[in-house]
Amino acid sequence: QVQVVESGGGLVQAGGSLTLSCAASGSIFGFNFMGWYRQAPGKQRELVAAITSGVGTNYADSVKGRFTISRDNAKSTVYLQMNSLKPEDTAVYYCNAQTVWGVSIWGQGTQVTVSS
After folding, report:
1. pLDDT of residue 83
2. Taking the chain (116 residues) in consecutive chunks of 10 residues, what is each chunk's mean pLDDT?
3. DSSP per residue, 64-80
4. What is the rounded CA–CA span in Å between residue 108 and residue 4?
5. 96, 95, 88: which is closest to 113 by C-alpha?
6. Residue 66 CB partners (closer than 8 Å, separation 6+)
7. 93 within 8 A of 9, measured Cβ to Cβ
8. pLDDT at 16
9. 35 with 50: CB under 8 angstroms?
10. Which of 41, 36, 55, 33 minimizes the C-alpha distance to 107?
């Protein structure tokens, strides 16, 4: 079974940038949905950005204009470019991949901490 692993998290000052990567152990061609979620302490996991085959991209209102999701099928990788980071972006970020047949795969998460 394909696994996904996130990387690129870290500590950054407010206003800074980070790029998260979600690398799959196999082809992501069969995954029509690739998304980034985040979960802050004491809060529910929320969808941050997603890219859906044949549909396009969508973003949470809180990150529109600052975050960009992209996928590279040749590298089996999905990226989340995060600019103008705010302290409220601090969370564990998770990658999720889904197929049209209902298979859903989660990564282990990567911590993003934005200091004020």
Report:
1. 98
2. 93 98 86 96 97 94 98 92 98 95 94 97
3. TTTEEEEEEGGGTEEEE
4. 8
5. 88
6. 82, 83, 84, 85
7. yes
8. 98
9. yes
10. 36
